[in-house]
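hey can u check if this looks right to u? its 761 residues, i copy pasted from the old doc so theres a chance i mangled smth
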Amino acid sequence: MAKRSTLFIRIVEGKNLPIKDITGSSDPYCIVKIDNEAIIRTATIWKTLSPFWGEEYTVHLPPYFRTVSFYVLDEDSLSRDDVIGKVSISKELLTVKPQGVDGWMNLTEIDPDEEVQGEIHLQISVLGDGDIPRKLCCQVLEARDLAKKDRNGASDPFVRVRYNGKTYESAVVKKSCYPRWNESFEFELDETLSDTGLLSVEVWDWDLVSRNDFLGKVLFNINKLQSAQQEEGWFRLGPDKSKHSEYEGTLGSLRLQLRLRDEVVLPSSHYKPLTELLSQSVGSQLNGNWPDFIMLIDETTTAESRQEVANNLVKLFLGQGLVKEFLDVLFKLELEKTTEPNTLFRSNSLASKSMESFLKVAGMQYLHRLLGAIINRIFEEKKYVELDPSKVELKEAGCAGLHRQQTESDIIQQSSSLLQSYLSELLTSILQSASYCPLLICQVFHQLYLRVQERFPDPEYRAVQTIGNMDTLACCSKEPWMVCLQPAIQQGITQLKDFITKLVSCHESEDLELQTRMSLQCGTMEKEGFLFLHRTKDKCMPMTSPFKKYYVTLSKDTLSYSRTQHSKKSSSISLPKIRAVEKVEEKCFGSANVMQIISSEDSGLQETLYLDCKSVNELNHWLSALRKACSHNTNTMSCYHPGIYKADRWSCCHQKEKSDSGCDKTRHGVTLQEWYDPLDPDLEAQLIYQHLRSVQQAMRDKYYMLREQQGVKEADSVRDKKKVDGLSKLFSILQDLHDAHAAVEEEERSKNKNVFLELQT
């Protein structure tokens, strides 16, 4: 049994943001944090107070997370980015709204006393007995992951302990977010205090010339503590009391869509009957039987849940090796309902959603390999492109030369040339990719082609439909500035028709072994791209920047890197030797996007590879990819150093022994979910069970309605009796799974009750 929490995030848009630039506008972007860890950065939308992002993410969450926060900032190339405001949503709110949160939320001012993070290690005990006056002892051991309040990327933390009107302070630990104090403070225990007797442990950042910054606090009820005599452990730092913001309602708002999903996943054996039954229902289609379950799922799934159900079914059948057969069933169902070929797969049906999910799962790596480098380069070039005369901004386009300013005509001509160049480059890359398109995609396309040909055999229906739903003549009547691109688009349509014809005939290739090998080669590539690297063994950090640019490739068994993409000479790390993959403190290299890979060599020595990423998104994608690849490693570390070893000490906790075990716990958890993640059959089966359970009665009603429409009587055919038996079997399996979940919940309640009773006694 495993508990898994997943959060779907869609950052839609913003409105009424305040002006931050002298131009009378802002350049807003969002940072998403889980508790206080940044995991996502959106694109910057230039020169607007009403930005539209439309970015979607799926995030795996630790079970102990408290809040998800959205910070809106204004990007500034000359100084530090301005923080506009934030929206914070608690786990409790997400939990009580299983259908999700969707709407506009006001940005609030950021109060430094609420921006706390980290944990503190304390041991609190009550000493003395009998006639001896009892004392309250608070031992302050260490802290980790404190907020960075100083410009050097660290803090100078000290602890302030308060009880019954008395206050003690610890020593200040300079330049560390992982301080160690090992100090004890004693108070006379006041037996007369009521339940309001509290011990307050506060952490502060010491400043020489300005007021100290609050880093967080923990409160303890002493009366509850006395029965236990001692309490020891790591405690999460909390914020101070929230203050009323004078800017409330004036900082603009964000439209967000969020949905938290907590699932208890049972052992595989519980889901085997369900997956076998669904597999049989798809397999029976090959013998000409009516696909009962798939049709009923299609008929009873609502538009709101159809995409998610399609995702789960596609992944489940991929794991069973039956996705082609599953999609073929949906093709036939869709074609039976379609009378006009031009409307084929245009509806929001289970077939269209499943095909979309399949292409993302099976083809995402192919797509990245195909178009990733070109699209990244286009974005990095940041060339000004605009064809609509009403939207051309001369000041944004810059000068054409030293002697004259660009005119509107110049900009439109330049934009047209750039767009045609980009289009040509993208088309060329697509046309050359048929040889390494995944074989499974080619086979599904071929099966779809055959089914459509069976349903619409007339010659006039054999042409491929207008590509991208783009009729260029109609388009140009509404947007005449697109006329200049019409010849290139028309040529592209013809070329893409030829490309699709090649794809549907790929399965007939004589060199099937080569095609399969190339498809597998594309499928096993986990991640690749240029990064800045630094590798260290026993050497200390150099004073100058140690990073050099390498092309990094994460494959099935190794992480390799070389100076160029196609270099024959490369270095590599065997994935089973990786012990930890973690972030590095910003102050170490002056970058917030550095990660470290700690591995063990055959000699037993420990080696660290540092990777500097371009953005927080790239950092978290690499972190997640490497952690997934190393999820079965056994020799993993439980703690690590988020800093570097320099000048004979660790920069994070100031320990002098290089072999010190570390001052922060390793995470190992994956953050970002991607389409090409390894399949999780038990989770997909659990999600399908949840859906089928919710539509069980609707499936039953739909089945009997279809029987009446087809004129089927109670004692008609043996085949119909088998269908009824099949449905009864499905409902019986769903009931068994429901009972298994109820037993798990009862066991959990019993455990919690026993723990509570132990604490009481």
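DSSP finds 18 helices and 27 strands in the chain.
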